[in-house]
Amino acid sequence: MTLLAVERIKLFTTRSPWWCALITLGLTVGLAGMFAAAAPAGESLDVPTTQIGYQFGSAVIMVLAALSVTTEYRFGTIRTTFQAVPHRGSALVAKTAVVALLSLVIGEIAGFGSWGIAKLIRPKDNLALHTTADWINVAGVGVLFAFAAVIAVAVGILIRHSAGAIALLLIYSLAAENLIKLIPKAGEKIHKWMPFNVADKFLSGGGNTAGRIVSDSPLSPGWALAYFAGFSIVLLAIAIGVAKKRDA
Amino acid sequence: MIEATSLTKRYGATLAVNNLSFSVAAGKVTGFLGPNGAGKSTTMRMILGLDNPTSGQALIGGKRYHDLKEPLRTVGALLDAKWVHPNRSARAHLSWMAKSNRIPASRVDEVLDIVGLTSVAGKRAGGFSLGMSQRLGIGAALLGDPEVLLFDEPVNGLDPEGILWIRKFMHRLADEGRTVFVSSHLLSEMALTASQLVVIGKGQLISQSSTEDFVSRAAENSVKVRSPQLAELREVLVKASASVTDDDNGIRVSGMDSDKIGEIAAANRLVLHELSPQTGSLEQAFMQITGDSVEYHTGLDAEAQHVLDPAAH
Lengths: 248, 313
Description:
The structure holds two protein chains of two kinds. Chain A is an all-alpha fold. Chain A has helices at 2-12, 16-38, 47-50, 54-74, 77-84, 88-121, 132-159, 162-180, 186-191, 195-204, 221-245. The A-B interface holds A 2-3, 5-6, 9-10, 13-15, 71-72, 75-77, 79-87, 245, 247-248 and B 45, 48-52, 65-66, 68, 71-72, 77, 79-80, 82-89, 92-93, 95-97, 99-102, 140.
């Protein structure tokens, strides 16, 4: 518990988490609002469409999470941290937990905020949360953000430089997975198992969504979440293993 | 309190610290002296468990750093005053450190007061001058009221007032019975601050002794001698295995003190006109002792020669 408090103090006494949180909410809720406002009057919006901006939101969350580690390397406070807590594994797990928890909260606000603004603008549309799939679609955003943050912290620990870590995370999550599809024959098969594609399956359930590419993952939403979570935790374990061996 | 045994650190092909053993006692300020690049910081990082030694170990009060429970309560360290997030306030920086070792929050204000930063406690640490950063770093080191304190080049870049403050501070800490281990590349500074010296060069131990011993050994390294019977004198001195070089109108003897030279002269019935120990500057002496072990020679001498004497090429 002490270590969680330490990491909470560290995270909230700098400015970047606040900025990233604001940008995330602006992107997700803003996009949902714009979609709702621009949709033709005759058609009805559906729940998945309100979450159109989640991928951009998760990209900013990953920037936040990566920065929480890389700035520590940049300013040398990681050494002070390891001096105060020589068991590096505990210190890094605590940091990951705090960042993931914050991401979860931001994600929930983003998910329900996006849905709420759409409902506010189009009160007559079919936006009620009836099915489990509807609920996952909105409430799942926070869960997805949390594990995306774990991935970003792990990459931050491994790469240690802000620019490198952020570039890798953004290019990978926003572009690289889709580019893999271009590989002849094998590309499609590999793409089905790429973590962010699988995460999208968890959120959207693979249902038909207007204006969005639908995940081609063969997993059920539940297993898709387990797969994405497992991927993030394995990556974190590797990163912590490396950090323990390396000179700080 | 600090015991290093055969500490060795290798980075690829470079041996940063080589089989270094020394001990640092409580109740004294012990200086850790060596030219830049001698391996002082690496050694300190190994003591603090930040870098893993290639072989050997460093123990603090008989324990490895990693095995200390709430280590800030045992060891305080200032390795680099700039290791602070620039957007975090001084108080916030100390707060998270205190929290990590269950140090009461009231201690943060106490420490801020000790180092004289109370009035700027809420300001961004990024806006601090070097002197203020240095004080914050010392505050962080003192947070857990530790028995052992490590400071890496604490006076670097400070103004005279700041240097004096830190020097007095270290004496106070040692007088309270704490172990104070402070590194520097300036012998003159260490001569005023430390009572014991661990001197290293190129990662190897050169000497561990009291500062007095080291300074006298370093400074009394030559004796100027004038004599009307210079040739004979030179001969007997060389026979007694002193090394002799020519000086303006006499000779300069090193490796032998003035008493011995006088006795040798008397025994050989040689007249002396002057017998004066030369106390060179401390820096010069230090350079002489560590001279062979400076990691990065500038090549300036060679360059100067080249410019002054183009005919030679």
